[in-house]
Amino acid sequence: MPQPSSGYARHDTASAARIGAYLAAWVPAAGLLALLLAAGAGYRPLRAAALAAALALVFASAGPGVRSFCRVVPLRPHWSHALVSQFAAAAVAGGLWAALARLLVASWGWPASPALAPLVGAAGALFYLLTAAGFYLALAIERAGASERRAGEARLLAREADLRALQAQINPHFLYNSLNSIAALVASDPEGARTMCARLGEFLRASLAQLGESGLVTLGDELELTRAYLSIERVRFGPRLMVDESIEPAAMAATLPKLLLQPLVENAVVHGIGSRLDGGCIRIAAALGERDLRIDVANPYDPEERRPGAGVGLSNVGRRLRAIYGEEAALEVTANRAEFRVRLRIPPPPLAAAREPGA
User: Fold this and answer.
1) Which residues contact 172 (CB under 8 A, 6 or more apart)?
2) Helix, strand or coil, per DSSP, at residue 217
3) 17, 191, 324, 359: which could join 214 in a potential S-S bond, CB 3.0 to 4.6 Å?
4) What residues are paired with 216 via a beta bridge?
5) What stretch of H or E contains 242?
């Protein structure tokens, strides 16, 4: 019989530990309720303990519902709405607990104490609020843990992305094409060959410099690297490769993870322009809104020539965005018969506390 993986085993152990801790927390709560029933409602200790145990068991079984309600009504950003909702839920929980206590006492044939309903109702409301506070704390710890795991994943992906970017930019195929173009120009256009060598050197220098920088760079710096890459590809594609930039001035100073734009443009060149005999125009647009930085890279392409699925560059960019920003960022890909478009949405620094680890 196959054995469960260690990851599943750890998850099951952690879940069992959480359930055990939750149930253990109800032991002193049941003891406190028993004391209140004995002192306030006049029940003998054994009866008070039995009633308290039954009520605590029912309340404890409703814990998953309380947890779900805490998820649906988070404290942030509308904490006043959450407090009103939780106090209303506490009143309902106290009333239901009091009704259950009276039902149990009647079914067991015990005398009904006038203090039973108000005492159990008040205790139920208090216990509900304490349970909700505990779940809010647990959810906050979970979010912090998820953020830490995402940060660790981002550190690994950042290193992996650096290596992939370097390999994508200095791979043998790219260098072969560039050097082959230089060799072809040496005899016919020596000046062009020298220009090509200079551009290739500038691009390699800029690539290596970015790999050694912090996790975030400005869009202006990223565009400079992208333009250096395009200047080399223009030698190979000539007039078949055209570029149209529409960049808002305010967006130039916005920051984004390094080496994020260049893979998208490289994807447009390789899978878009390279698949068409007449080439085409790559359109790069960027705008800084109130909530995010939006970057569009669009190119004509031949749907029959393009291989199915996203390329390594697109996949890597999407994974990095998810690791760094979670759900706050997005990579959107749309395509029709004539155009392939990629849109990035990245939170600006004031809204995005996330910063690529490893910086």
Assistant:
1) none
2) strand
3) 359
4) 257
5) strand 241-247
- Residue 88 structure tokens: 């209303």
> What's the CA gap between 353 and 347, in Å, rounded?
9
Q: Where are the domains of the chain?
A: 14-147, 170-346
| 51 close to 101: Cβ distance less than 8 angstroms | yes
C-alpha–C-alpha distance, residues 345 and 277, integer Å? 32
Distance, in Å, from the CA atom of 75 to the CA atom of 79, rounded to the nearest integer, reads 4
Task: Kindly report, residue by residue over 137-190, the tens digit of the pLDDT.
Answer: 888 888 887 777 777 777 777 766 665 655 554 456 667 767 887 888 888 888
H or E, element range at 340: strand 339-346
**For tokens 């779900």, what's the residue?**
68
**pLDDT computed for residue 356 by the predictor:** 44
DSSP 113: P
Residue type, 252: M
- The kind and range of the H/E element at 93 are helix 79-108
Q: Can you give the C-alpha Rg of the chain in angstroms?
A: 32
**How buried is 75 (Cβ within 10 angstroms: 0-12 exposed, 13-18 middle, 19+ buried)?**
middle
Evaluated on CA atoms 116, 118, 121, 127, the torsion sign reads negative
DSSP state letters, 142-153? HHHHHHHHHHHH
Instruction: Dig out the tokens for 351 from the structure.
Output: 């809204």
Question: Does the model's pTM come out above 0.85?
Answer: no
Mean pLDDT across the chain: 80
Q: Is 298 left (phi over 0), alpha (psi -120 to 50) or beta?
A: beta
Pairing verdict, β 255-257 and 293-300: unpaired
Q: Is 119 helix (H, G, I), strand (E, B) or coil?
A: helix
